[in-house]
Structures are given as structure tokens and as C-alpha cells.
Design goal:
Strand order of the largest sheet: 10-9-12-13
Order of helices and strands: EEEEEEHEEEEEEE
Radius of gyration: 22 Å
Strand content: 25-35%
Helix content: under 10%
Largest sheet: 4 strands, antiparallel
Number of helices: 1
Distance between the termini: 41 Å
Length: about 180
């Protein structure tokens, strides 16, 4: 494709921009998975990343907090609470959508999700929710978090030139049933 410069009448090749990123292989995580703490007294959350000591003594409201243990897909209420991820987009920019529950999780003041967190290769992202919101969040992925992703429904195996995006973990917090985790 050629562009014609109207002032001089000359032609020059049009600039092409690549939609591919340099990193087409799965990157490594920069930090370890987060640890979540919740104060039952005031309701505050604390997230620690890359904790180098075995037993942190984190205190709030005069009490020592314990690390939260996330529920998983095998737990009894998983059908209503498990965060499920869907990735869409192109080569450089992708979005990750997290929906909670096979049937949407309730979002009333009495029973709701407070937040959804996504652990990514370069860090993590929070989205906070309010009563009445949909039990879902959409996250933007860029840089190493958006390495080449193929959205084909069926993988072509060793004939495929892409390494499909895998490795993210989604967390959600239910005000009645605690912390939930699902890895993708």
C-alpha cells in the first residue's frame, strides 16, 4: 500500500503496525499468589503478596487475623459462588470477564459479592461491587498479561502456532460464604 504526499506529489510506502506482541509464550508470574485477610470487627480486607515469613502477625481491631482459606470447585456451594473466567480479544489487548455462579450470585444487601480479584502474571486487579450490580467484572489485560491468545473453540494441538493463555486465578468474596477461588 502506498500513500501519496499531496504537497510534493511523491509516493511512499504506508506505515504498517503489527497487531502481534513480542511475547507469544506464557510469561512467568512476577509475584506469588496473594494471601487475603478479613477483619470480622470492622470488615476491612488486607491482601499480602510475596510474604517472606511463615506466620505473619497481622492485627486489626485488637485481634490477630488469620489468612483466609478459599473455597474451591468441590465445595458444596460452588455452583453459586465459583468465579468463572472468559478471555476475549486480539493479540495485544485482551479482556478477562469474571462471572460468579452458574446461575447469577445474589446481589442483595443481605447476600452479595463485595469484590472480585484477578491474579495475573504482572500482578492483580480488584473490582468492587455494590448490591444490585451484576455478579461479574471485566478486566483489561495488557503487556505480559495479554500474551498471544487464541480464542478458537477447538485447539489444533501441535499444529497451532499460538500458546493459549492460561494461568490466571479469580477470587471473589461473598459476605455470607467467604472467599472463593478458581484457576484458569
Amino acid at each position: 500500500m502506498l500513500n501519496k504526499n499531496s504537497a510534493s506529489g511523491s509516493t511512499r510506502p504506508a506505515l504498517r503496525t503489527s497487531t502481534r506482541i513480542k511475547n507469544s509464550t506464557k510469561p512467568s508470574f512476577l509475584q506469588s499468589e496473594p494471601t487475603f485477610y478479613h477483619c470480622p470487627g470492622c470488615g476491612q480486607f488486607l491482601v499480602t503478596i510475596n510474604t517472606s515469613f511463615d506466620s505473619p502477625h497481622i492485627q486489626c481491631c485488637g485481634a490477630t487475623l488469620s489468612a483466609l482459606i478459599a473455597h474451591s470447585a468441590s465445595d458444596e456451594l460452588a455452583e453459586q459462588h465459583l468465579p468463572m473466567m472468559t478471555i476475549s480479544g486480539g493479540f495485544e489487548a485482551n479482556t478477562l470477564r469474571v462471572n460468579v455462579g452458574d446461575s447469577p450470585h445474589p446481589m442483595t444487601p443481605e447476600h452479595q459479592l463485595a469484590w472480585i480479584y484477578v491474579y495475573t502474571f504482572e500482578g492483580g486487579q480488584f473490582k468492587f461491587l455494590r448490591p444490585g450490580d451484576e455478579p461479574e467484572a471485566t478486566f483489561a489485560l495488557a503487556g505480559n498479561d495479554a500474551y498471544v491468545y487464541c480464542d478458537r473453540p477447538v485447539c489444533k494441538g501441535n499444529k497451532c502456532k499460538f500458546n493459549c493463555k492460561r494461568g490466571f486465578t479469580a477470587y471473589s468474596w461473598c459476605n455470607q460464604h467467604g472467599l472463593w477461588r478458581h484457576a484458569f
